[in-house]
Amino acid sequence: MKAGKKLIGFGKDMIGFVLLLLFLILFFNIESFKNTEASIAVPDTWLTVNTIFLSIVIEAVPFILLGVFVSALIQIYVKEEWIHRYLPKNAYAALLPAAFLGAIFPICECAIVPIVRRLIKKGMPLHVGVVFLVGAPILNPVVAASTYYAFRTDLTVLYARMGLAFILAIIIGGILYIIFKNSDQLKLSKEELVGITPVTIESPGRKMNRFKQTLYHASDEFFLMGKYLILGAFIASLFQTFLDRELLLTIGSNEWSSTAVMMAFAFLLSLCSEADAFVASSFGNTFTTGSLIAFLVYGPMLDLKNTIMLFAFFKARFVVTFMIVVTVAVFAAVMTLQLFIL
């Protein structure tokens, strides 16, 4: 049994290494692939896949680094009793502080998964982690500023995005509490999560300082998360290249269908929440305002690359339920907004 687990773990590591190697080869040799006189001619569509893939990875890596370092700092410096002491004992009362907490940290959806996973490991209730998971990528100051600059001629989009994100984060957290209570929904054990614990933390006769522990934890997390990021980015780049956007524009001609289409578009494009407002603004003359808001709210909560990360580290039943709840909640909220306010 142990040998089988080691073999599976080795296989996953090798896949991650091959994906990383492929990324580096493409990154440093893109110009040679563009040369039509080369012995191997690469079709333009696959060059487009490569360009989009690189742009997603390069955009996401800084935030993954931010996320894993914050995760490592939480592992080393945050004590379990602190979380239990400062969070309200009432499950529903804890939802509001979690939403406000998400508005403080400049973290996008690329980095939020390792942070939430670590906080849950430290004792944060599952539903509070969910609020942070869906709220922080939208409510933070960096996203607010980028949305303001992208839609400064129509601040309705900014107010609707921030307001819906705050309310929906609380609602989604409450629904998932009703479904799962405080059951353990993390897939990996602590040993699999941290890596080689005798070296990275402490061993008899040897005590490692906290700075080195933080670096070890961050490096483990980065390579663990990075392979799923690269896989998700590659799949997203395929969708972006081969998806018929003219068909999407035809379908998205009314409030109901355009909202559904833009939510699907947000999921497949897997844009970073700090940059998605500028992409959304480019569709301003084609799609309804409500559908643009759906794009800006749904994408940071749930997209292709962070779905792969969620399935890697949380139980499948929880991830599927999370996806359904987020999708239904965002769609219902945006349609209500369009019918009664916009």
TrEMBL record:
Protein name: Permease
Organism per entry: Alkalihalophilus pseudofirmus (strain ATCC BAA-2126 / JCM 17055 / OF4) (Bacillus pseudofirmus)
PANTHER family, per database record: UPF0718 PROTEIN YCGR (PTHR34184)
Keywords: Cell membrane, Membrane, Transmembrane, Transmembrane helix
Top-rank taxon: Bacteria
Topology within the bilayer: Multi-pass membrane protein
Subcellular location, principal: membrane
Keyword Ubl conjugation in record: no
Subcellular locations according to the entry: Cell membrane
Gene Ontology CC entries for this record: plasma membrane
